[in-house]
Every structure is written in C-alpha cells, then in structure tokens.
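Subject: sequence -> structure tokens, single chain

Hey, anyone have a minute? Need the predicted structure for the following. Not urgent.
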Amino acid sequence: MTHSELMLEALSAGDLVEAQLEFEAALKEDQPDMLMALGGQLMGAGFLEEAQTIFEKLLESFPNEGSLLISLAEIAIENDQTDEAFGYLQAIPKDDNYYVESLLVLADLYQVLGVPEVSEKKIKEAKQILPEEPVLDLALAELYFTMDRFQEAADLYLKLNQSELPEGVSVDDRIGSALSMLGEFEEALPYLEKANTEEQTDHRLFQLAITYIQLKENEKAIQLLEQLKTLNPSYEGVYLPLASCLLDEDRNPEAEAVIAEGLTQNPYSLDLYHLASDNAFRLGKIPDAEEYLRKAITLEEDKEISLIKLANLLLVDERFEESIETLSELANSSQGQVYWTLAQAHNGLEKYAEAGKYYEEAYPTLKDDPDFLKDYGLFLREEGQSEKANVLFKEYLTMEPNDLEVLDLLED
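Reply:
Had a minute. Here:
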C-alpha cells in the first residue's frame, strides 16, 4: 500500500499520530497522482491544512495545472484569504480545460463578497464557452434565487427540468420554492409535492405546509407540520405556523399545547410569546396575556411592538394609567399606534384635551386606518366637533361604505 492509502487507513482508525507519520512519508515518496487523490480526499474531509500542503507541493512540479489552482483557491476561500484565492484563479488561462470551473469559483467568491452582479457576469462568461451546459444554468438560477430575482430563477429551473441533469440532482424543490416566492402557490404545489415524495426533508415538509397555508388548506398544513414536529421537535420554525393554523381552526387546546412546546424548545421566541398572548386574550385570560407580553419585553432590545401590544391590552382592561405608563418608554416613537393608544387612554381618564392632542398626532400616520378614523370621529363628535367628525366619517366610508352606524351619524 502507498503511504497515502496508509494515512487514510490511520485516519479512519482514529490514529492521528500514525496518520501524520504516513502523511509526511507520502509527501516524500508517493507519486503525484496518489498525492492528488489524497489531497482531494483530505480536502473533502476538512483537513484543509494538509490538503493545501499537498497541492502547494504538486504546484511546484506542475505550475500551470488548473485543477491544483482551483483546489488551492477553494481552500483560500474557506480560510477567508480572498486575495490569495483571486491570485490562484486569475492564473488560469482562458484556454485551460479548467477555465470554466475557475469562473464558477470566481462567481462563488464574488457572491461571498456581496457582489452578485459580478457573479452573474462570470457565470454568463462561462455560458458563452459552454452554452448548453446544464450545470451553468443551475448556477445562474441559484444565483438569481439568492438575489430575489425569482421569475428569472423559475424560468431557468423550468428549463432545467427538461434537461439531462447530473444523477441525484432534482429541481422540483427549487421550482416550487421560486414559484411560491412569486405568489404562484397553485403552480408551486405539484412541484413541492413531487420533491417531498422523491426525498422527504424537514425543509421540504415545511415549505409544502406553508404553501398549503397560503392556499387556505389548513388541515393539510396541520398534518404536515405535525409530522415535521414529530420527526424533528427541534425544528423551531414549525411551532408558530402550526399553532396559528390550529387557532384558525378553533382547535384552541391543541394550539396552546403547541405554543407551550414551542416555548420549551425556544424560550426566546418573541413571535410565540405574542401569539400566546393574543390567544390568551381571545379566551379572556387577561392575566396570562399580560404575562406573556411582559416576558417578551424582558427578552427584547427593541421592545416597541411588545410595549404597544401591552399598552393596548391594559387599555382594554381599563387600566388607563398603566397603559400610559407603559408607553412612556416610547416617547419619541414615530408609530401612530402609540399616539392612538395614548389618546384612548387619556379619553378613558376623561382628560379630553390631552386625548385630542394625541389623536391629532396619530392622524398623519393612521389616516388610512378605518378603525382609527371611526374612533377619532366618534371622539370629536362627543367633544361637540361634529363638522370635523363628519369629515373623518366621510373618509372612513370610502373604506367601509356599509357601516350603518356611521351612515346614521352623518344623517343626523
């Protein structure tokens, strides 16, 4: 056996000392083809330093070997040595058999550096050399997907679906994902179902379930999400949509159990705390709803949304002073909802002048919210400002033309 083979055997047996000895012997005695194979296997196993040593040694004897330059570039990229990676890749001439591969590695490098437009140029240059190569279409489609250019990605994936692809490569999942991102859920569904049938993964189950939710097929979504939760309870993303679907189907006890399980898996999930609070409020469990929100507030740096939700909860519970105190942390907020809640709380305390001031401050950002317009109009009417109230009611009726209460008020 060669020293390269003996090194791999030692690694497989977990004998790192013997592996190092055989590695050093291989560098001195093994033939270039054996060293090349060893370097590739070590690189694939994550032994980048040893692989780099082999490739650098071989490069001394074969300075123009494109495969060596590409391997060294890939190692440099893994080590965040971008200048070295560029140097290796740019040393590969256009007439080299590995030039197209070097363009793909360059495309990956530019994408890592946050310059996807240059990545696109490199892939398109490669396509000019090999216009019918499906791997290049796949690389371009993947790039477009990461750039949120979903229509272009979908078009390429659909083209690839009719092509001869390498064994084990399927684009059904990618087609479905791209179409979903375009909002074409009906069209995405058969591709996602086929991909899930071909090979079931956590991601595919989740993506298919979310698509069913978009199509208002909650029961199918629930079935898939429960399956995913059973297969992988640590898949954190499963709990929020599953609980939401169960609530939509009025399966409240099951939803509460899912929320509790989700918070056990991830006690820092703000979305789950908010959902738990909303559900408790809906069930009339005000103390529980408040507790969930206060827990969320302790976890957040940006507490604005949770503070607003808590203030509104206190408002509904007619704890007006506490509602105002809760919003004191948001004195400089640009959120119209803050001023609306303050207006309602002051109105509840019969501090009408302050309430009117806050309604005025809320109006510029909430003038397209029909609930706000109606509430503000009713406040103004109570304050004897019927003319101004009627202006707001007319704005409101352009959004809610069938509100008989407001129509009657306008006729008075």
